[in-house]
Amino acid sequence: MKFEGSQTHPRFSLVAALLVICAVMLGGTAEAAQKLLIGTTSSSSSHYGYFVAVSQLVNQHVPGAEASVVETGATLDNLRRIKRNQIDFGLVTTNVLYAAYRGEGDFKGAPVKAKLLWVYDIAPQNVIVRADSEIGKLADLRGKRFNPGLKGSATESTTEKVFEALGITPDFVRGSTGDIVASIKDNRVSGYVKSGSGLKLDASSRDIATMTPIRLLGLDSTQQQKLTAAIPEISIVEVPKSEPYESYATWGFAVAAAAGPDLDEETAYRIVKAVCEDKDAQSNAYSGVKGADFVADTLKYATVPLHPGTIRYFKERGVSIPANLME
To answer: Vertex 176, ends 175 and 178: CA angle to 5°?
Structure first.
């Protein structure tokens, strides 16, 4: 049934057509926005806050990208999520990334071909003993009660590999950080291995040193060569002098961002450029990166090939990229 005057007026047809076109254009714009998910770690970690700052940089400096962070179980979880295409890039440690890329360790038979975007922090593994002990070098730890790191941690497993490679056999004592800190103070264990806070001692080590003088043990040149050959996934970290402690070398790994093969070169390039050229946002969120040279640290501590977007940006900066990072 037609009502009088129900025939569509040409003007209304034009308006309707324009509305449809606008709706399509708006819908197309929404669909074109690239959603990027960044895998992080526990929201209680300062590293989570760091990647919140990174997401803000991406949203400000990468046209068409909308980044958001995802709370995860850190490196292992992030690499598995990258393999399942559940995140676009995320936090990793360079030693675990090495194993994942090569299909070793926890990734045996199931490699994750994630590539490095940038390194933003260093985690030296500090060997700390009581200053009143007779332990003056790593070899003196043979047979001594010593904690290799928090039970179940990457520090613990890496320490075991290191001492095996060096042929040193302490009497390993397991336990939580709190238990071991108390044991060192009470002289029930000689010392422990603990990740540094950047190139500085972590809070638990500073706590011990408040009432119990400590000594830091370093690697000699022969030991450095042995570890470099035996455990290529770790790095030798030179820790500068910081009163009252002299400079020393130890093993460690870097904390970085890595992405799977599905993150395109252009997007990765823009992300790395924004991160490497930022002066304030990241250091305001995570003080450990203040004054850091991400380009130099990435080239120094990378254990797997760099993402093509990273390579493109680094070449623009005029740096020389080792062949093993160009694969």
So the answer is: 125
Rounded to the nearest 5°, which phi and psi values hold at 117?
-95, -55
Other Cβ atoms within 10 Å of 150 Cβ, number:
21
Q: Is 189 in the same domain as 135? A: yes
Note whether 105 and 303 are within 8 A (CB).
no
Q: Is residue 21 part of a domain?
A: no
Number of H helices, E strands in the chain: 12, 10
Domain extent at residue 309: 33-121+255-325
Cβ contact 190:147 at 8 Å:
no
Distance between CA 167 and CA 278 in Å, rounded? 44
Distance of CA 72 to the CA centre of its chain: 13
CB 79 within 8 A of CB 114: yes
93: CATH = 3.40.190.10
The SS3 of residue 225 is helix
Within the chain, strands assigned E span 34-39, 65-70, 89-93, 115-130, 145-147, 171-172, 191-195, 214-217, 235-239, 248-259
Question: What pLDDT score does 29 carry?
Answer: 44
**Cβ atoms of residues 257 and 100 within 8 Å:** no
Average pLDDT per block of 10 residues along the chain, 327 residues long: 44 50 48 86 90 98 96 92 96 94 93 97 95 96 94 84 97 91 96 90 92 97 96 93 94 95 96 96 93 95 96 97 92
- The C-alpha atoms of residue 89 and residue 92 are separated, in whole angstroms, by 9
243, two tokens: 């009163």
DSSP state of 287: G
